[in-house]
Design a protein that fits this description.
By secondary structure, this protein is of the alpha/beta class. The protein is built from 21 helices and 14 strands. The longest helix is centred in the middle third of the chain and has 24 residues.
Amino acid sequence: MTELKLNQAALAQLPANVTGPAYPRQSLAPSIVHIGVGGFYRAHQAVYLDDLLALPDTEAGQWGYCGVSLLPHDAAMRDAMQGQDGLYTVVERSAAGDVARVIGCVGAYLYAPDDPQAVLEKMAHPATRIVSLTITEGGYYVNQGTGEFDAQHPDIVYELAHPQAPRSSFGYLLNALALRRARGLAPFTVMSCDNLQNNGEVTRQMLLAFAALRDADLAQWLREHCSFPNSMVDRITPATTDEHRALVREQFGLVDAWPVVCEPFRQWVIEDAFPQGRPAWERVGAQMTHDVLPYEKMKLRLLNASHQALCYIGMQLGYTYAHEAMADDAIRALVRRLMDDEVTPLLDSVPGVDLEQYKATLIERFSNPAVRDQLARIGTEGSARIPKFVLPSVREALAQNRPIRLLAFTVACWFRYLEGHDEAGRAMPLNDPYAERLRALAVQGGADAAALLSLRELFGELSDSPAFTGAVAQALAALYGNGARAALEQAVA
């Protein structure tokens, strides 16, 4: 197969098994700035807009994305996006086969370390109506123990000392909004697309708390005029690997520096609160609503918590991918019983959703061998994910005198993973902003959970709960004393 380097010129000669943008890219107005041009955004939000722009009666000139990356390690993404004119390949993988398409709705791309002022001016431009975010669960500066803004975070300390030299997403947001206010422009809508319950409200509270430390008048203006819609996002998207690049080259004939692979399933539930206007996402499968909370709670407590349950024990048992872990009968039982026995009784009814069918679909999605989702990816930033996905169910269950044994086992598996090696002595990668501190405490404590449980910035009042700390301590002692396999079998017995 002839190989074709992906760029704008290549769109006229795409292979027959690859679809491309069915709209004039040159007419796109990048009225949505998106911060965090990673795999999930490119497989999810960008795909929805690409579908919308392809409809024959869509005003293609009204909407488009300007992607923004803020971090120095995003230089490789900069090179890929700029070198390919903002184009990239999405491959949906399932047992039925692989389906490839080229996404064209990212009409512009900016790399903040190269030109910070260009990013600020783009966000402050009158044509920018929405700024959306995929900055990971840890990017919102929430003290997990108190739920308050973490003003002592090193990023925030730096931003407050250097207000005119932003580096973080919050610094760029606040500076751009201040420019708009000074120029007499309405604020853009700030739209979180990260896995946080009440993600819009969390963004609002944290950004306003940050603004109050810098400029009380700006904080008040944002409080009165800026909209922060909640949303729920869902699509399993493994990190891009050289294997994926080879797949796109060999199977579809495209040389793509940064393709993205994902499952066929996708879901997007959005609170309809966009005073500056929005794309008609509902025309391409998104659900617009005035109450996202039931959908968020269902997804975070079932899908994301189950991901945490399977990934840490899976890595300890030597598995690399989610589908391998789910082929283990004991891990599969852990996931199913965690959902059925400890989480589902805490959930409210969700309009239009059959929870039993939803859980069955999750098991099927986790078990999809074509996606090859890495357990290491799922286990990234546990210090943000455990408090957001697992501990809320622990708190509710304790308040209702319900069981937490499998939830506590999940926390214990994370503690055991933090030590750094599986039972065969193989290193387990730890990607966490608090990695050094967490590993030191895990090595120091070993089978004793007390040191890690004392982290009030993660566990809050749960550090004082005998029911919770006792269950975690018992599970961690079993993991060290009996081994991961025996501890797992005991947990699901």
